[in-house]
Design goal:
Elements: H1 2-18, H2 24-36, H3 40-58, H4 64-90, H5 98-122, H6 128-140, H7 145-152, H8 154-167, H9 175-194, E1 206-207, E2 213-214
Antiparallel strand pairs: 1-2
Length: about 220
């Protein structure tokens, strides 16, 4: 879980610092930061808490252990992303040539997908947004990682559109964002098979009292 946290945070920081597009949720946070002036770390934390509360609705029951674990996770995650992004900026990632920044941003997508794959399979504590995709994947779209990722992209895309109308700018949306939209699910599924393949999903769906699936 800790390794997944660091890998995910570092990958997202790579995408943000490269400034050639980032994951959709990170891009929505960057645009909210640009609109409101609130620190990126705080916005990422708030988004994560909203995700954690949403997950309680999606699993159709109150799970305090899950909720508390996810809130603690995002409190560290937002700070780590902000720290790593600042460190990478200091190394010149945000001022490198366009081809290099494309590689940094797209590489960040690959890196955070590996992190997501690791802690989704461990299913101990994870970023609540990635728990959302896990819940969608196994409770709603019959195990399809790509479909669950695409469903999960709808809210941040709406946020980016609203921020654009407010500021006239769209930030952190570029080549790597398209790469993320098209390939997140594929990269996660591929990581499931290639990165520590003996770590298998222990996510279990069971019927609730009224017969509907829950976890």
């Amino acid at each position: 879980m800790v390794a997944g946290l660091f890998i995910n945070a570092f990958g997202n920081a790579m995408s943000i610092s490269g400034n050639m597009g980032s994951g959709v949720w990170s891009a929505s946070a960057v645009n909210l930061h640009n609109w409101t002036g609130v620190s990126l770390g705080l916005i990422l934390t708030c988004i994560g808490i909203i995700n954690a509360l949403t997950n309680q609705l999606l699993i159709r029951r109150f799970d305090p252990k899950r909720l508390i674990g996810e809130v603690i996770f995002v409190m560290f995650y937002g700070s780590f992303v902000q720290f790593f992004a600042g460190w990478l900026d200091g190394l010149g990632a945000n001022t490198a040539s366009i081809p290099v920044r494309i590689l940094i941003s797209a590489g960040g997508v690959v890196v955070f997908c590996v992190g997501i794959s690791l802690y989704q399979r461990a299913n101990i504590v994870m970023h609540p947004n990635d728990d959302t995709t896990n819940i969608l994947r196994f409770m709603y779209v019959k195990g399809n990682a790509t479909a669950s990722q695409l469903l999960d992209f709808a809210p941040p895309i709406i946020v980016i559109i609203i921020a654009f109308f407010a500021t006239g700018q769209i930030l952190s949306v570029n080549v790597a964002t398209v790469f993320s939209i098209l390939c997140n699910g594929i990269l996660i599924a591929t990581s499931d098979k290639l990165i520590w393949p003996h770590l298998t999903h222990n996510f279990r769906v069971k019927p609730s009292g009224d017969g509907t699936p829950t976890v």
